[in-house]
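Progress against Task 2.4 (sequence-to-structure conversion) is shown through the following example record, which the project officer requested during the mid-term review.
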Amino acid sequence: MLTTLAPQNLGNRDAGIFVAATTNFDGAGKWKDDYSAFFAGKKVTILPDNDEPGEKHALRVAASIYPHAIGVKIVRLPGLQEKGDVSDYLKSHTDSDLLAEIQKAPRWHPPIEDCGLLVPIMSFLKDVPEEIDWLVTGVIQRGANGVFCADAKGAKSFASLDMALSLAIGVPWLGFDVPKPTRVALISREDTPGLTAWRTQHLLLGKRGDTNQLQTNLYINTGRQSKELMLDNEEEVIELMSVMKQWQIEFAIFDVFNVMHAADENDNTEMRTILRQLSRVQAEVGCCIGVAHHYNKAGSTSMTQRLRGSSAIAGWAEWLIGLTLVDEVQKIRRMEFELKAAQPPDAIGFKIHERGIDKVLTLEREELATLSAIPASSAAARYMKR
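Structure tokens generated for the chain above:
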């Protein structure tokens, strides 16, 4: 049973509760919209039974009456046993107790339906995560696109391949935590398939963790798998998206960007067309994307300014990982970061180590003795505010 009270003139406590009240003919689930007109101009309180049918019925009645009444409340009485109703409540509570529950209950309003194009701010904020969902903790946010950028000999292919392996296995990368194994696609187009295979095999020798996960978590495309893979070729992009969906790819690395399109890198309009293709891949597959790209020759303290080509490339990126060879003798490289999701980590030094007769390759952090002589990027704060 569901009781609907339309308060009119409340009497005193000794005389009881003087209100107009009704129950729903045939019980829960049998409400008809024709009934609602009788509540025009009334303040309506709905007292549902304490069970799922009662709750659903209360919401149904409230939505039906709402356009007619001055105000609607749904009062869920405390302490009711399963399937209990207002009559059970009044066996152990006074009329004043009931009125107090009615008075303190908030008014009911129908939920606002999102129209898609514009949504109410509170609806938008319902999906705000409590913490950032990191792909690589402090470096790459899950779902965000970015760029590995480097000078010549900066080791961007090494670094991105090593990251792909760490992500697929679920082990830290250069000291940065990888919260969980990730399905990765590596589109390797700068180096020969043989060189990519050699690097992969020898970097894998230096990885700890369950490397058996690579069979299901890391997928690769080189010149062996397809003669070309161009972002401005519609058929090739559609085929790529289809395969990425099949393998449920979460992160895709495109190495290197400039050989995967025929557009003019310095033309903003042409670059936006190519970048829209990447964003389309991201949206349809549900992955994030990292592209390997080059710095230009002009020196600058800003990573965004040093990116070769159109400013549209930097504008598309939500994170940047910059690589520079800072010690020619020791082969120590500097890695710095910019990201929009949080304060970027400090720059680090790293070196590619080769050990033993098996030529085990590892990327390991190194002290940057020359750090003070190399100006750190001052663009990170500006980048985050854009």
